[in-house]
Amino acid sequence: MGLRELLIPQDKIFFDLFERQVAIVTESANQLVALTENFTNVKEKCHAIELLEHQGDQITHDIYETLNKTFITPLDPEEISGLASALDDILDYIDGSAEKMLYYGIESTDSPIIELSKLIQLSVVEIEGAVKGIRAISNPKYIEARCIEVNRLENLADDVLAHAIMDLFKSNDAITIIKYKDIYEHLEIATDYCEDVANVLSDIAIRHS
User: Are residues 127 and 136 in contact, defined by beta-carbon separation less than 8 angstroms?
Assistant: First the structure.
């Protein structure tokens, strides 16, 4: 990279990478819902989600590599690394949740698993809209609204988790309790990371508007 490229903010590069990364997160969330709603061909569906997670890892690596080579950036370096890391965390927990369903050998998904998966999907749709909005922050209120909705969805996920665990402990099957509780909690953590992304995006919208 030459001196000119070092001195000129690499707006297009970073925003292109973020939009590619969030598109993969969205597709992963869509596939998670497809898996939980139709719990067949589980190994193949989990493998497809795993491949998306690997693609996301590569884009995260590309973002960090570009950041290390760029002298002036369109966003603060901490904002860039924070957003890349939090998006990657969502992917990790989507993949990890699917992996647990496969490796634990559960025979079927239940209402909490499907509900939590859909809340992840809804959150990611909002995040994708907000990520596209930071390319040119002409309407920070739009980004803020998307972030507020993600926060609301995360609160719903907390409620789903609490009720799911309460119902789960009505069972006397310790193995089932352990398996499903772990899956529930892993899915809910994905919504926590969605909220982390929303917080980063909200800060970006405020600082750069």
Answer: no
Please indicate, yes or no, whether the overall pTM of this predicted structure exceeds 0.85: yes
Instruction: Indicate the class that CATH gives domain 3-208.
Output: mainly alpha
Q: In 3-state terms, what secondary structure has residue 39?
A: coil
Asked if 41 and 102 touch (Cβ cutoff 8 Å), the reply is no
Residue 8 is given by DSSP the state: S
Taking residue 99's Cβ as centre, other Cβ atoms within 10 Å add up to: 17
Q: Are 19 and 62 in contact (CB under 8 A)?
A: no
Which residues, at least 6 apart from 77, have a Cβ–Cβ distance to it below 8 Å? 67
pLDDT at 208: 80
Domain boundaries, the chain: 3-208
Question: Which residue in this structure is represented by tokens 């919208």?
Answer: 205
Mean pLDDT for each consecutive 10-residue tract of the chain (209 residues)? Answer: 45 89 98 98 98 98 92 88 96 98 96 98 98 88 96 98 96 94 98 97 88
Alpha-carbon distance of 29 to 35, in angstroms, equals 10
Measured distance CA(57)–CA(118) in Å, rounded: 23
What are the two backbone dihedrals, phi and then psi, of residue 73, each rounded to the nearest 5 degrees?
Answer: -115, 155
Q: Give the Cα separation of 91 and 23 in Å (integer).
A: 11
